[in-house]
């Protein structure tokens, strides 16, 4: 099953889903950087594999285990990492474009200078992220239902990000700018929002609890009027 990897580093249309995971890890650990196009590696245990600089073009990696994997500089273009386990993986300088990372586990992952663009990340777990001295990018992504509790996002600029029903409890969102973002049903309990610019965000339903949750944030005149109405105040 690993014959397709014997003549690398560019592999097209290989189905490795029934291959021996250890043989695949060994093969991928030699040579490279790999270019895998339209390949299937779904549900394989590739924990600890070194894919530095690899290109994964429209590959099916749904449910793959990449715990502790080295993915520095990886380029992921389309394809699926839905349900993938990337716990403690190193994705420094990686770029993921148009990929499906729904329900992916990125717990403790190193995301320094990592870019997620137009990715589907519904229900992804991004807790306990490491090395946030340099922030990663999540432009145009859906992070609905994602877990970002206690995330350090101070000063970020988020554009076209759907955070509906996401868990941002305890997150540091000071001075963060939300442009064309959705915060409908987002859990912002105990989040720090001083200086956060929410004028470009859809705040969803405004309730009497909203003012306390958004304390210190910057809102538009229209949003402020909605908050006043939720408090039973008459806006003239």
TrEMBL record:
InterPro entries: 5peptide_repeat, Pentapeptide-BTB/POZ_domain. It comes from Actinomycetospora lemnae. This is Pentapeptide repeat-containing protein.
């Amino acid at each position: 099953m690993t014959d397709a990897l014997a003549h690398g580093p560019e592999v097209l249309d290989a189905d490795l889903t029934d291959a021996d995971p250890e043989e695949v890890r060994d093969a991928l650990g030699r040579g490279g950087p790999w270019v895998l196009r339209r390949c299937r590696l779904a549900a394989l245990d590739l924990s600890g594999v070194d894919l530095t600089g690899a290109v994964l073009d429209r590959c099916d990696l749904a449910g793959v285990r990449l715990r502790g994997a080295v993915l520095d500089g990886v380029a992921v273009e389309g394809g699926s990492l839905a349900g993938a386990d990337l716990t403690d993986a190193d994705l420094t300088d990686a770029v993921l474009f148009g990929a499906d990372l729904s329900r992916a586990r990125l717990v403790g992952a190193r995301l320094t200078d990592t870019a997620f663009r137009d990715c589907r990340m519904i229900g992804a777990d991004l807790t306990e992220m490491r090395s946030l001295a340099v922030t990663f990018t999540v432009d145009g992504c859906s992070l609905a239902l994602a877990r970002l509790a206690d995330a350090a996002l101070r000063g970020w600029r988020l554009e076209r990000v759907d955070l509906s029903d996401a868990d941002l409890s305890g997150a540091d969102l000071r001075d963060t700018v939300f442009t064309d973002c959705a915060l409908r049903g987002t859990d912002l309990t105990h989040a720090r929002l001083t200086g956060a610019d929410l004028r470009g965000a859809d705040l969803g339903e405004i309730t009497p609890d909203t003012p306390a949750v958004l304390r210190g944030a910057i809102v538009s005149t229209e949003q402020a009027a909605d908050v006043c109405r939720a408090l039973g105040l008459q806006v003239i």
